[in-house]
Amino acid sequence: MTQLKRIISTALEQTAVLWKPIATAFDWVHQVATLLDNDAQLDGQNVCSSLGRLLRAMERWKDQAGSLAPGIDHFLKVTLSYAPGLFHCYDIEGLPRTNNDLEQLFGRWRHHQRRCTGRKVAPASLVVRGSVQIVAAIATQIRSFTAHDLATVSLAAWQSVRADLKRHQHKRNQQPRFRRSPATYLADLEQKFLQLALPP
Fold this sequence. Notes:
Number of helices: 9
Order of helices and strands: HHHHHHHHH
Strand content: under 5%
Helix content: over 70%
Oligomer: single chain
Shape: extended
């Protein structure tokens, strides 16, 4: 036991220079996790501001992380890429906070679809209308919507969503045509392009 203790002590002494950067990086990541846990029940704007201050401090002092500085750069880059959708969950009650929570939510929806349709796989319409179907399914689990609620929806927003769905449906309809006859499909596209390129 004494020999093992001596080996461990020697190893810790020889690697002491490596521990400070690890402790610094761990402390920063732990602070980020604590902010996002939001035990203080702050709203999205305040969580965003607090996290922004911490990320700027990490950027400023990343040299303290030593050889882990590239890892800090990567952490900052990925965190900033998620930022636009990271804070809605603090303002909307019941909105899942993590990828795992979202996966469970979508899993429940898929299970519900299988029970309703008897199919083992998701319906093909999910590719085109999933963005609307899933939101509607989740929203109606939270509360019921009346005709009055639907009447207050912006007509322009509704028409925009419908137009997007039609575009997706059109693209979906074109896929079998290409698979059946790629040459014919591409020739048709080329002909349309030439018509657009020709002067009127």
